[in-house]
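[Primary structure, fold]
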Amino acid sequence: MVRKNILRYASASANLYNFLGDTNFEHHMDVYKSVVDNALKAHEDIKNFAVEHARVVDPANVLEQLPERPVLFVTFHTGSYNNLVCLLLKRGHQVHVLSDTDSVANNDYNQVSELYSNRYKNGCSMEMVNVEEQGAIFSIIKQMKQGIVTLAYLDGNKGVGGQTKHNENMVDISFLNGRVKVRKGLAFISYLLKIPVVVVLNYTVDGIDYIRFHEPIQPVEKDREQYCLQTIQSIFDIFQQHVRQYYDQWSNWLYVHLWTDLDYFRQKLTSHASPTTASAQGGLRFNEHRFCPLRLDGKLYLFDRILYRAIPVDESYKDIFSYKTSTVEKTNCIEKLTAETPDKTRELIEKHVLIEV
């Protein structure tokens, strides 16, 4: 595994721990591989027209009322996450996907319109719209009034694009066990047009892809900022239930920390061991909840799941951190370390690498 992927795995492990409270660390590599495979499948499914075999769950019949009754679609990078776009194209719609400067520049989906238009001969089209351009929202509103179907991915993908986490266009949202920074522009459009937001989630069960349309979130009369905040929070309330059920299908475990309020996790830090008393009372153990052992460029590191950074450690400590070392063997290694190098032991205690049993 190359260095970039090792760090992505470590970040994914940290995100699983912080957001889900998942402490089955040996299973985290399996989840990492699953979400990487899921992303690859989602891209391949576009070219293979996998949407033709997907099952659509739409109890409110939202699809049948388009475009006469417009809605704003919200989706996430879960399951075969391109299936919503593909379904709309298959049904002959003009589709705009709200995105940011970096994603538009990648040109990932430039061929999709032509591919599906040639397949279905229905005049469908798709365009990625850069929401970071000045006046973009008002252009989007105008185009929606002309019948263009609009959707957005709200899970930040690889970050928050050209915006910082403290940008005024971001709102702070509760999500699982943490807090995330989310663009509020989509809710702002809903507020101005007085149209509902519909959450659409993709997932796979027993090899069958599903596209589920949730009940529309209806616009209500209230203060604009309050409406935007409550609407985005309602979206993420729906999504977090989905993630808990299909957590190994969410490709954003690799990146969610990039649009997260990491201080929320850091504020939970407490001192687990006292440098002056820990070695004398009851023994020590490796803090496996907080630290993930890694090998980068042939050197040993511990990835701090709370601070999201790797710290180098001496190679002689490897048996203390290895998943292959038994609990008894780890205890013996720590006792030897404490007896022979008390200064190094104290350093590991101060960094919370070693904590009281």
